[in-house]
């Protein structure tokens, strides 16, 4: 059980590092693009048009990144719920073996848990 937690922590650290690199690259490219547009000798109308196009592209990229992040979070939640159900089931089995007179009053608790795990 502790190995599972350690693996998840390591995986989370790796994701955090790559996420930081990605965010830094996006911010750097935005800043570089804006600097290039604002310092380039061009008419005000063309500059505004370029800024609007860049803003639209940024919006689309952020929407896509947020959808991907949401999907990843939902997937992690689903995996965690499945793992917890398995662990609870195993623990109940062990408890029943050690306590044969145990009356299973919580058997429906696991089935009644909400299936919806999206944000």
TrEMBL record:
Signal peptide: none annotated. The chain crosses the membrane at residues 21-40. The keyword Coiled coil applies. Keywords: Coiled coil, Membrane, Transmembrane, Transmembrane helix. Residues 48-79 form a coiled coil. It comes from Maledivibacter halophilus. Residues 95-106 have a biased composition (Basic and acidic residues). Residues 95-119 are annotated as: Disordered. PANTHER family: GENERAL STRESS PROTEIN (PTHR35792). The keyword Iron does not apply. This is Gas vesicle protein.
């Amino acid at each position: 059980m502790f190995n599972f937690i350690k693996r998840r922590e390591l995986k989370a650290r790796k994701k955090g590092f790559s996420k930081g690199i990605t965010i830094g690259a996006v911010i750097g490219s935005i800043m570089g693009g804006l600097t290039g547009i604002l310092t380039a000798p061009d008419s005000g109308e063309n500059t505004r048009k370029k800024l609007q196009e860049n803003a639209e592209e940024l919006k689309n990229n952020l929407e896509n990144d947020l959808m991907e992040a949401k999907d990843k979070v939902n997937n992690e939640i689903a995996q965690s719920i499945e793992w917890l159900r398995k662990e609870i089931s195993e623990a109940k089995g062990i408890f029943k073996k050690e306590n044969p007179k145990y009356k299973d009053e919580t058997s429906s608790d696991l089935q009644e848990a909400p299936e919806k795990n999206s944000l």
